[in-house]
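Section 5: illustrative case.
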């Protein structure tokens, strides 16, 4: 009987197998390493509008050993149908041979690399990294950020605000299963004084947070990634710009960070997460205390970091090759 390769042995990984290769702290560390790698090339992503309001995202990136492209669809019309809004794959190639090595589950990579980037920012910038954590939005990114901050920062208490009480309670149950305390709150703004960690993880259709933060607050805002999208009130962004610090994930935020653009801020003048990572030792001396906003819009570099880590967990030989060929800053 001929051998028939299994789903996993063929390099096609489902959601669970993809997640298993992307542990939270290791993925945050891989993102930090990638930001210091001069060999990476990350073109601007292409976004093709689809009929009925959907979008196709094409996001390639490469270093000296690995090439990858993420192909995902965003279908807002799937909300409430039982079908996921984000679907697709991350295809990973070995540059030396041209071989396709992995096909990772796209939504899983998107969820985990986004939350891992927030985790890295919180590790470097959050004044009170242990929380409590307020999560606004109880969907996939809400859960991913809860997991990342519980495992990566040791958060033990999570407050959850969502337009859907049922979704908030479902997330609370998942948080409790992770060993942390959870409470559902009806008003995100009312919870702000109690939570020095905040993650806004909504669909970016409307302002969900407007209360002035505590001076020791760290906010990761990940739901708005076009100029028309918004989660944070303009006044909140302006308050943090005046009294604290705003860091964007990459320079692409110049034309993507709806929260900041609608607040009239000079996004081009803001530091990036790469700047923070490269200048980590001096950052605390240069910037006085105050609230910190990490504005994340998404970037194929994070997907490349996930691809590198997934390969290292599954292919020691290729991982060793990459460690030799990568060129750190």
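Designed sequence:
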């Amino acid at each position: 009987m001929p051998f028939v390769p299994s789903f996993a042995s063929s390099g096609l990984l489902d959601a669970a197998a993809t997640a298993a290769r992307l542990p939270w702290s290791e993925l945050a560390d891989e993102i930090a390493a990638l930001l210091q790698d001069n060999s990476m090339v990350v073109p601007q992503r292409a976004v093709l509008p689809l009929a009925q309001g959907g979008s196709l995202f094409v996001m390639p990136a490469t270093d000296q050993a690995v090439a990858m492209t993420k192909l995902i669809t965003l279908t807002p019309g799937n909300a409430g149908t039982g079908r996921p809004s984000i679907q697709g794959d991350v295809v990973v190639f070995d540059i030396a041979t041209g071989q396709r090595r992995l096909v990772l589950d796209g939504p899983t990579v998107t969820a985990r690399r986004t939350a891992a980037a927030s985790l890295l920012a919180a590790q470097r910038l959050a004044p009170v990294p242990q929380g409590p954590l307020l999560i606004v939005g109880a969907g996939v990114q809400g859960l991913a950020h809860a997991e990342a901050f519980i495992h990566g920062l040791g958060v033990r208490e999570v407050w959850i605000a969502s337009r859907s009480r049922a979704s908030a309670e479902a997330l609370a149950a998942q948080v409790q299963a992770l060993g942390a305390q959870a409470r559902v709150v009806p008003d995100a703004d009312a919870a702000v004084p109690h939570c020095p960690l905040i993650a806004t993880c909504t669909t970016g259709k409307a302002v969900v947070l407007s209360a002035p933060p505590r001076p020791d607050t760290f906010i990761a805002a990940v739901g708005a990634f076009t100029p028309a999208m918004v989660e944070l009130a303009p006044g909140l962004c302006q308050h943090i710009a005046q009294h604290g610090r705003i860091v964007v994930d990459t320079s692409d935020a110049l034309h993507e960070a709806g929260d900041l653009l609608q607040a009239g801020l000079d996004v081009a003048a803001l530091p990036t997460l790469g700047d923070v990572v490269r200048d980590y030792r001096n950052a605390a001396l240069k910037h006085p205390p105050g609230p910190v906003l990490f504005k994340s819009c998404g970037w194929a570099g994070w997907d490349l970091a996930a691809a590198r880590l997934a390969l290292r967990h599954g292919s020691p030989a290729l991982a060793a090759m990459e460690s030799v060929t990568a060129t750190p800053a």
